[in-house]
Every structure is written in structure tokens, then in C-alpha cells.
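Researcher: Let's run the pair from yesterday's discussion. Sequence first, then C-alpha cells, for each.
Model: Starting with the first of the pair.
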Amino acid sequence: MSDGPSSPLPYRLVATDLDGTLLRSDDTVSERTRAALKLATAAGAAHIVVTGRTVAWTKHILDSLDYRGLAVCGQGAQVYHAGEHRLLTSVTLDRQLAGLALAKIEAEVGPLFLAASRDGMDGDVLVGPGYRVQEGPLPAVPITDPGEIWSAPLNKLYLQHPELDDDALAEVARTVAGGLVGVTMAGSGIVELLPLGLSKATGLSLAARRLGVKAAETIAFGDMPNDVPMFGWAAHGVAMANAHDELKAVADEMTASHDEDGIALVLERLYR
């Protein structure tokens, strides 16, 4: 990470993760955080959402926030223009490589429960037998034949194990299949296989280039290991109090939790 911003503004780009960061536990954004983001944008900074969710699971939230800018979705696979409701870039997972990676992981730990996110603005999330879907309003399509997962282009594959915890499963996946696919953990029960080399950092760098902003002018907020690459790219990484220890270890700063206006506390200090 660099020492600091090169702009008269504290930072010209504010990058925020969604779940566990910008969104509170009830999936809303507090009025104080909304006001702090408006404070930053009024000063001339751009705000960009960077989320592991695909566009299909993100666009309704952006619409509810009246968010009109760019968003990086799907762990960096998709750059989406919220104001125009248009997908600008999309990277898909090589299904042959993903199948080989899955076979290697299952050879090590036994059968896995699977889900998959199909490509596109309205791409379905397919959920196979045994996969535990988190409660909430996000749509998912249950399938009985795991072979259906491979029938159309995918952004990512989700893995769960009947006994291993997320950290252990992600570690095994990286060890045996890390040369074929990317592996990240985005939340509780959310271990993902991605196109090799893809991360929030790659998607954010593409979006920032479109905005004419550099890494040295960026502050990033997050809470999970999938935010580690974004912190490595940005000049300043801020971990929420509720963050995973892996992210806290690389953060430049800690703030309050997503339920206690952690983003607002930092932005109010920087932009007032």
C-alpha cells in the first residue's frame, strides 16, 4: 500500500463492500452513512460499491439507494453501470477448469454441496441438493441434478462441506486447485471458485480507470477475506469491527461495525 493520497481531496474514490460493511444486519444503509457518503461525493469524491454479489443480487439494492454510478460485482467479474442498468464487462468461469478443480477438491475432502451463479444481468443462482442458502429475499433456483450447474456460462461456483468450516474448506481448495481457479471466502458458508486471477482488486482497477482515479487516491472499506485484494490495491484499507481476522491483519485502520456506522465515522473525519 502507498503512504497516502496524491490528491488535494483526502481520497478521490471511496470503495465500499456491501454485506457486513455498507449494509447493516437488516440489509439497510443508515441515514448517517448515507449522509457521510453524500458528504464525500459533495467534496468531489466518487463512491463505488464493490461486492461479491453478482449484478442479479445487487441491482435492487443499488436502485433502493438511488445509486447511479459504477458497481463492481461478482468478486470483480462484472462492472455494472447502475444509472444505465447496463453490464459493462463480464468475466466467466471456465467450466472445464472448474470441473477439474472441483474433482481435485472432492478427492481430498469428499462430496461437496454446490451452488452456481450464472452469467448475465439476470443470471440465476442454482442451488444443488444439500447446499444451505442463507435466509433472505435473494432469489435462488433449486435443482435436483447437479449436472444442470454446467449447462450455461457461470461467474462463480459456491462450495459447502458437511463438516469442514469455511476457513478449512477454502484452505484445502487453494492447496489442491489454486493453480486452476481462484478461491475466496465471502461470508459465512460462502466459499467460492472464481476465474483464476480474478478478485475485487481487478474489477475495482477497471472501474477506477473508467473514472480516471488511481489506487493511490482510493480508500476501501470491507469485512471479509475476499476484500484482502482490494485492500492491497487501495491506498488505505479500513476493516469493520465485525471483520474476519484475515482482513483485520492487513487493514490500515479499524472502524466500528457495520451496525454502528463504521463507514460514516471515517468519512465524517476525512471530509468535514
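Model: Moving on to the second of the pair.
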Amino acid sequence: MKQITSSQNTYIKGLLKLQEKSRERKKLGLFIIEGLREINLALKANYTFKTVLFCSDLIQKTAVDTLFESSTEVIEISKEVYEKLAYRNSTEGIIAVANAKSFSLKEISFSNKNPLILIAESLEKPGNVGALLRTADAANVDAVIIANPKSDLYNSNIIRSSVGCVFTNQIAVGTSEEIITFLKENKISIYAATLQNSNKYHLEDYKKPSAIVVGTEATGLSEIWRDKATQNINIPMQGKIDSMNVSVAAAIVIFEAKRQREFK
């Protein structure tokens, strides 16, 4: 079994580049997963793995062997190398290099004839994307679609802040135009969260196929969503400010839709 003890090792430097640069991830079709929980969720989502690195000071090799097929390369790394690679110190001493999946709209399928979808447009902060994916998982929505993405979904910060929910949701990305065409073709009503020309969110009927669309707190949704929506909706604000965090707003509307559907 291969061992790496120096953080100056060429392969380790390559992994750091993979971890930090979206361009590198897209070029190689690979990304980094850190931690047992996240790796287990990726395995359940049928991700395949190229390499697994483990620190024997923190995890036994037998525990690693039970997770992966024999074809997956396993490398033992020193604690120094692990600490160089790890984003946080509570990930049980295991890091994996996984093969990326396509997030094409063409691959979205609905087992549910009455789908509920969460759509987010142009989110920039990885923490907001991660929180949104956690909300989607909690509500067990049928798909999450990111319009005009500003962050690579395999960004380590997104994987971390989503607590692995990037692997538990059915996800696609596309332009706003492509997504609206997809929704229209599938006869899915669009409810766009915006202040302009909108009704209170809780007065709408989400029991039919529905897409809840949210934008950034700073700029809101673009005009195309406001114009093409079945109905624009708003959350009545009763304090001194007129907006809230996008993942919080999404959760409020999504769980109203789930309530109307009797959480089925």
C-alpha cells in the first residue's frame, strides 16, 4: 500500500489544487470529499471513487476497507498531510477523491407524478447553497435546480455546509431560460419569490406540480422569472427590514407546500 508522509509531495499538491480550483475539478472530472458521513452519503448516491486517503492515527484501515471496492486505490497519509488537506478537524481521518457526475437537466426524472421542486438563481455564497440543499433534503423535494450558478457544486465549502446533502438531492443546473422551458414542458407551475406584483405565499395552492424559485437577498430574482412565473409570491415581513436569508425564505415556502400536501 502506498504511503505519503510529506505535505510537499507532488500528488498532495495536486489534491490541494483540485480542492481549491473549480477549473481543475471540471478539467479532471474529480472532486474531494472529506469525512465518513459525507463519503457514506456519496456511496449511497452511487458515486464512484478514484482514491481514498486515510490517516492511521485517526482511523483504522479495516474501517476503510469495509467501505470501498478493491479497485479503489487506498493511500495511507501522515497526520501532517491529513491536516494539510482537511478543511476541518472532525472528519475521522478520511478523505476521498470521487468522480464527478453530470448535473444536466436532461437527467432529471420524477418518480412522483406531482413533483415539488426548489430552484435557486445565481447564488454566490457556498454557505447559502449548502443551507439550501439541507432544506431541500429535509423537505424531501423531488429536485433542486440551480439557475445561472455562481459556485461549483463540488466546492468543498458547499459539501461541508450542506453536510453532504449535495449527494442526497436530485440536482441539475442550467440557465434560467433552459429551466423555464423544462418546467413548461413538464407542466410545472412556477412560484417566484419576489416583492414585485406578488401575492402572500401562504394564499397559493402548491398541491399540484410546483416549482418554488428564490434569488439572492441582494438582487432578488431576474426579470425573466418574474415575467414567466405562474404567480409571484412574497413572505410578509413584519419587522424593520424587507428581506431574509435565501435559505430561510426557501424553507418557509417549501414547508408551506409540504404542509398543504400533508407532508406526503
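Researcher: Give me one sentence on the second I can quote.
Model: DSSP finds ten helices and twelve strands in the chain.
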